[in-house]
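User: Please predict the structure of the protein below. I'd like the answer in structure-token form so I can feed it into my own downstream comparison script.

Assistant: Understood. Taking the following sequence of 733 residues as input:
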Amino acid sequence: MIKKCLVLFLTCISISDIVFAQVDSLPVYEIKSDTIPEQIIDSIYWQRLEDPGGRWTFEEVRKEPLAGKFHIQADVPAIAHTSWQRYKLKNMLPYPVKIFLTSTADFFDVYIVRSNSLVTHYRNGGLRKWEEKDGFKSAEYMKGAIPLKLNIGEEVLIYDRRNLMNEDIRRIVVRFASNEKIMSQYLDFADSRENIFKETNIYEIFTAGLMLFSFLISLFFYRIVKEPVYLLFAFFSIDALLINLHNTAAIFAYWFHPSLSWWVPFLFSFIPWLTYYYFLIWFVRKFFNVKNQYSKWDRILSWGGIFSVLLGAVGLVSYVANLEDSSFFNIYRLVSIIFIFGLYPLLILITIFLYFRQRNTSIRYLSIGIFPLMLTFIVSLFVILNIRSSNNSGVFLNWVKENSWLLLLVCMTWLVLWFVRVLMMKYVHLMKENAQQAIDKERERSELIASQKIQLETEVTERTAELKQSLEELKSTQSQLIQSEKMASLGELTAGIAHEIQNPLNFVNNFSDVNKELLTELKDEIKKGNTDEANAIADDVIGNEEKINHHGKRADAIVKGMLQHSRKSEGKKESTDINALCDEYLRLSYHGLRAKDKSFNAKFETDFDASLPKINVVQQDIGRVILNLINNAFYAVNERKKLNETGYEPTILVSTKRVNDKIEVSVKDNGTGIPEKIKDKIFQPFFTTKPTGSGTGLGLSLSYDIVKSHGGEIKIESKENEGTELVIFLPVI
């Protein structure tokens, strides 16, 4: 047991020796000067350990087996998103040195191991919560700094852990602070959030509010005058609002959540710059009406606006593709600066000079508004180029550099104020024009109304006379048509009546001839003295005379019915047996059709309710309705018969029955039926499906009116190619 413990103890000592031996073998970076603001530690002085999962802790990486995996960093990027670095720093100066370590990583952790083995942990990073940060906190560039003070001859071992999502570590930088005020902020771990919101941010917010006002008032005037020029300026205003507000928006976004910081330049800078000069150039073209006076220059402006969109699109793609550190992006940035601050403002200034001599007040006022802003952009170009070339700026350029935001604020305010003035001038001018146009239109309208009134009165008088004449003609035509319909039905009746009256006349003639012969025989029998035979013959004669009288009365009734049907209705209602009326007109209709067409043949049936009471109706009118319905039924079955359908037998059924306080008269056929689309039209005057010359289209219309005048109603049930049923309802009382 003692041996095992001794072996374990010796093993731990040996492992510890290996770990410390590995750390001891790490070269020490000696700080021998602090006059240079930053010093880059060569890769031989620091080692890296890749942490693919980002899960290892400080205690794990400083011990075996991980401690032995640290290696000298070659000049290649990290292959993992997270890595550990360790290096030694030693102050060789004869006084304490003040340094700070910086990183643009999302998460930045620093562990400082001093000679007394005391470990201090500091946290910082772009995505770390503000309250969790140590050291100097900054939201402006999403960077932070960890301060460190090294006493004379002091040596420290540093482990730092970096998330490499936003950082490609190929070097470690030590920065020195010679300014005591700044260094005191580092050493005291001051929270600099309250110092980040600077005076320039107030300028930005004020300018953004001004551009928002410009945007809203431009939309307001566009809604009134409907001129695209105001809509273009509204879009330009909203682009200027976003561009001026992007720094302040970045701060607020970072405070809200650090992960939003990537979207701020995307939404507030790159996207607005896509169309900023496009809308401004097109606004100038439309407002100055360049195309009509300087067509070639207008073409140059047009292509300049399109190129501004393309230039912005390149920057947008470069930003999304994370090419900001590439040489291509540096060239692009220089070109875009020249175009944005030089070429585009120069194009607009040239346009202003072309039109400034004109007497158009609106153009002059707008030129006065745009000129300072474009001039400020051009001056800013020299400031930016001077800064990039690292030359000493003159007094004027330094003043422009220090007061750039204030200048932009003043110029944007100047532009908006003059543009609003132009809008108000145009609005007042438009109101005057509208008022004058309204007066002119009202005068023209009054004159037109007066002339139209006279003309209308004349036309009304003429039309009234024409309408009176047309009405008289219509009444005359209607009477003729109604009479024609009556005569048509009378003609159909005549044929049937002729057939009906022929039967009793045949009986009268036949029995008259028989009686003549019997009377001759009677004389002979009387001469012979054959009394019995004479009496028998006399009885036969008497019987025949009774039959002659019966058939004569029958013929008389038929003639009276014909006369009653043909004469004008006086509207006098009589007690009528509806069954007898239906039976009579059924036979008359059938025989009438047979008289006109010998080939016509159809089966007809009746189903009369014998218990029906008599009802008060105008017989000739109701008879005309029944006749019309039966004629239509016979016509429908005859038309279907012409189709030569196998097994088809034309049939109609006329039936009566009582339903509550009404009598129902039904005429049902198995004919062609009525299409659904014309059902609603069959009771309309002059509507007919019969060929031209075969009907007037008034039959069902008159029938409908007659039934309604009796307080009844008429309904139709029909299916195409199956048949139709027309039902009349007449009140009993």
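That's the full token string. The chain is about 60% helix and 15% strand.
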